Amino acid sequence: MAEFLTDIETIRARARQEIEKGPVTDAYGADVGRVIQVLNEALATEIVCTLRYKRHYYTATGLYSEPVAAEFLEHAQEEQLHADRLAQRIVQLGGEPDFNPDTLTRRSHAQYDASADLIEMIKEDLVAERVAIASYTEIAHWLGQGDPTTRRVFEDLLAQEEEHADDLRGLLERLPRAAGGRG
Fold this sequence. Notes:
single chain, 183 residues, mainly alpha, 6 helices, elongated
């Protein structure tokens, strides 16, 4: 193990120098402005996903819609929690979360979907989850050790997005062929 290089008096002095920066210290190794921008893009993604899942929840119809709609609602609630977590991290870093509805879809990695067919809803939600998985994996790698806290946020979100994708794939596999599924 390497020696601890900075004495505690130096750490205390540095902590007092820029107290207004909150948790962003000299040890922070990322470009905080760019990290906030990426966090706001992820925030937009989560808001769009929440809205898409909510729409699918309310508009899902047909013989097999009840369990699928329940899954949509659960995912919508979890995506909202993701958005809240991202907004909190943006504020911690000294930024402002961007909830502007006029620019949400332009900033979002995922797309909104207005499908009316149950199978198409599931497929579009699965595509959006796969987009989030690819984006969040790339973001976590990009952050590396520069901002381990934000990286962990994205790793946590990534794990849940992977779970969502698996849930949706399972729905497609279990739905009978008559409903447009593979079962």
